[in-house]
Amino acid sequence: MLSKEEKLRILETLDRDVEFRYAIAGYLGLSEILKRLDSIESRIADLYDGQKKLLENQVKLWENVEKLWEEVRSLREDQSKLWEEVRLLRKGQDKLWMEIRDLREGQSKLWEEVRSLREDQSKLWENAEKLWIEVRSLREGQDKIWENVNNLWIEVKSLREGQDRLWEEVRDLRSGQVKLWESVNNLWIEVKSLREGQNKLWEEVRDLRVEFAEMRREQRRLRSSFESFGRALGVTIEYYACAFVELMLEDMGYTGVSVDKGFVYHDGRVYEIDIFCEDPLVVGEATLYIRDRGEAESELKKLDVKAEAAEKSTGRKIVLKVLAVANVSSDAMGYLRDECMRRGVRLVVGRELEVIV
Asked: 256: domain CATH number?
């Protein structure tokens, strides 16, 4: 009998030593069976590996099949596109045949036009010959014109001789002009003397205005006798108008206001204003006579320009704009009245200075 330890050693040896294990199996009659099992196991392993490879190849085949189907689909799409292009080409071919027919028809028409052009060309040659004949006649006329030009040069020479005579007369006129300048200088001397007399008159007018201010209470009587008073004293229309505007301002509630000639400086220019008061701002223009519509418009423009300059120079708004006229023609009166009403200008007319507007 084997002990327990010996049995364990035998089992461990069988597990570790293959030859010992086969020897025991052969002794027991199992060696052939074990060898066949080993060969079968190796074949099974080979079959398993082959099956794996077959499966891998099958997967690749399926992938290739899918790619082939995709290519088949794309080929079918391309085939349908090709058929469409074939149809379009056939249509284009039909159109080309139609164009060829049209071109042939146009070619025949062109040949007809060429024939007609050749006929026209022959006619043009005939006309060219006629033109040459006319050119010859024109050259003959040109020769005649040159003859006339020569005659004109002869006349020009005679005109130059006359021009020389005219220059002599101009020299005589210049000598007369010198004499005229001498006369003008004498006139300027007389003008200076007249200005001196005018200055004296202005002094007298100032004295008269002082007296006139004292007579304001007798306004109505003064208005009725203004014309005779003006003739007696020789005062200008500007001073009449200034005095009259003072009365107008007094009626408007402005007492103790002095209206006189004035000067305004604006934008590099001095404006002389016939009727002027700074506070309240009054601007007026005075003139002796307006004969027509043009003069009326000119006076109103002057008044507008001076009024604008006065407003900008003083920084005040105009209270009263006045146009005083001694005499107005009947033609200009209607226009002047309407324009003054439209522009807000007080129109004073007549030597008695009657307010019209």
From this structure: 3.40.1350
